[in-house]
Write a structure and sequence with these properties.
The protein is of the alpha/beta class and 230 residues long. 50% of the residues lie in helices and 14% in strands. The chain is globular. InterPro entries: Asp/Glu/hydantoin_racemase (IPR015942), Asp/Glu_race (IPR001920). It holds the Pfam family Asp_Glu_race. Keywords: Isomerase.
Length: 230
């Protein structure tokens, strides 16, 4: 299974995807991971995401998908949950099936016995509660702070680095959502590892990136088929 990844959205998230996917594939006995990465433009994605220009962003991604198709990829994945705002529009244009990072989350939460999650990520992810795709899991966000948390996340994603002040803002937001009844905090933004990796916030943290990576590694290992996930 040759996996195509649209990266660069942002760069730090792409690096983490690469690191974790190669490790997960190796752990599943994949001797030779077939992976091709095409670089997307984060500033273009940010502009279209904030303006809800789904068709425009899908068309911006399409040349990258075509490049991955020409490289022999069997499927593609986006290295950004924020980029999933135009997933339906991209799927309508794409010559390759798309393995969503959002679709497997609801089932995972149910399997883990998690009934309510607290969300951190882009403005759109928090405002729409993961694009409204959680059918069996309740989701909360700090609605009064979506703008400042979303801007902080955007700043971290663009810089590829997280300051101590930015880290504490995210950690504190998580604490308050746990106090409001969340069973776990979901990092629904692939650059949030920059804030949470190596930290012990005192509550359960689930990185959506890891769930997506596990699914891609299962595909690479032949444990699941494309028909099951795309």
């Amino acid at each position: 299974m040759h996996i195509g990844l649209i990266g660069g959205i942002g760069v730090a998230a792409t690096i983490v995807y690469y690191q974790r996917l190669t490790a997960a594939a190796a752990a599943r006995g994949v001797a030779r991971l077939e992976l091709t990465i095409a670089h997307g433009e984060i500033q273009e994605l940010i502009r279209n995401n904030l303006a809800d220009r789904r068709e425009e962003q899908a068309r911006a991604f399409l040349p990258l998908v075509q490049r991955l198709n020409d490289a022999g990829c069997d499927c593609i994945a986006l290295s950004s949950l924020g980029a999933h705002f135009c997933l339906d529009e991209l799927a309508a244009l794409s010559p390759l099936p798309i393995v969503s990072a959002v679709a497997p989350l609801d089932a995972y939460f149910v399997e883990q016995g998690i009934k309510r999650i607290g969300l951190l990520g882009t403005r759109v992810v928090m405002r729409t509660r993961l694009y409204g795709q959680l059918a069996r899991t309740d989701a909360i966000a700090l609605d009064d702070e979506i703008e400042i948390l979303g801007q902080t996340y955007q700043d971290v994603a663009v810089a590829g680095a997280c300051s101590s002040g930015q880290r504490e803002r995210f950690l504190d937001a998580g604490r308050r959502m746990i106090a409001a009844g969340a069973d776990a905090i979901v990092l629904a933004g692939t650059d949030l590892n920059l804030a949470f990796d190596g930290q012990d916030p005192g509550y359960r943290v689930i990185d959506a990136l890891d769930i997506h990576v596990a699914l891609l590694a299962d595909l690479a290992a032949g444990r699941v088929s494309l028909g099951d996930v795309a």
